[in-house]
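Hi R.,

Here's the chain you asked about this morning:
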Amino acid sequence: MHFSIIGALLGLLLLIFSLTMLIPIPFALWFGDDTIHVFVSAFAITAATGAALWLPNRKIKHTLRTRDGFLITALFWLVLGLFGALPLFLSDAPNLSVTDAIFESISGLTTTGATVITGLDDLPKSILYYRQQLQWLGGIGIIVIAIAILPMLGVGGMQLYRAETPGPMKDNKLTPRITGTAKALFTIYVLMTIGCGITYWIAGMSAFDALAHSFSTVAIGGFSTHDASMGYFNNPIILSVAVVYMLLAGVNFALHYYSYHNRSLKVYSKDAEFRFYILINVLAMAVVVAGLLMLNDSTLNFSWQESVVQGVFQVVSLATTTGFASSDYTQWPTFIPVFMFLLAFMGASAGSTGGGMKVIRVLLIVKQGYRELVRLVHPNAVIPIKIGNRPVSDRVIGAVWSFFAIYILVYIFMMLLILATGLDFLTAFSAVGASINNLGPGLGDVAAHYGDIPAAAKWVLCLAMLLGRLEVFTLLVLFTPAFWRK
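And the predicted structure, written out as tokens:
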């Protein structure tokens, strides 16, 4: 393990992150917020720490190994969450404790969207912008950004990319060089954000809200500048725009790249994961809209048009693990919010900004399950599992089942920890699910916000959010003896 180069990279990445803390200052000046000293102080502390790690080790040269990449990735997300909390902790509004500030920061960077803050409409605009910026940076992954702009990573870049990229097929590169891959991803991400922001603005949002919500939409984060989330705007056109961009952001970004590179949309229709992703979302929309139409009562009093708009929006928001709300869907007939919440367990596609177990894994589990059913009838049959026309190796299938098993075990363990803090079953079940799937809003006592749950529960959920963002194995592998053996 090359701790010196790990320290140097960690310090350099912290130095880069410190610069992002200066971006909210123009917003503070424009809107007259008394927060400039908050961001300057946070920048100084973060930059000083980064420099202290980087300067003593800057001349040391080593080739990064895979183990180094996993450790840097896990450490950086942990450290980033801690330092990202500084502006939130130092500011008088929202006046957060250390625990709450770290929770909010980690929630933002992991694009979970679970919040402990109420009264968003009254917060300084610079603080609101900073929360959205955290999600935007977390969406693309600050490490992938660093690979795109830091030639220093050079040969070792692939080790970081493999640790950072979600999904079971991490070795696929869009371009021959990892730097080119990161640049391609970053370019697509920026262009999608710009398109989303402009469309929101045309649809009726203010320029500030359009910018802020484009960040959290493309990042599939779910933070909003208003307590009522998307319901604040009461605009079906805005909800429709959000649906389109949430679905796009939930697609493997490699498909966007290949579609642009080949100037063809056929790339999408040929991809098995994309077809399954769209199929599940369309079927879920049909179920929820039908449920709203049939179970609509005096409490909801939706017209059929509202049932369609609200149902479609809320399905996509939860299925992609974005977590926006257009209304208080927890008050809908019980079947509907529970059904939509369970969609987040599958989540978005591998290689997207979304959370959950990922569509490709669920698709492989379904195919493997079907193969075993067929084998009951034809025990000696050789039935390969294919994604598209390509057979999937048994090693990948085994890895998917291992992930699923570890995921369930971790989920149960963390739910028991939350129950031990005194919360009820529904709250514990949904809080852990919303955190490990990077969804955000849960059910029960965490439907609106997480501010009222015990501090111990918040720390457990912070770990759950990090596990979800790093896809469980990337973090858990650090606790295995084999990882530390020479």
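Confidence is low (pLDDT under 50) at residues 146-161.

Let me know if you need anything else.
M.
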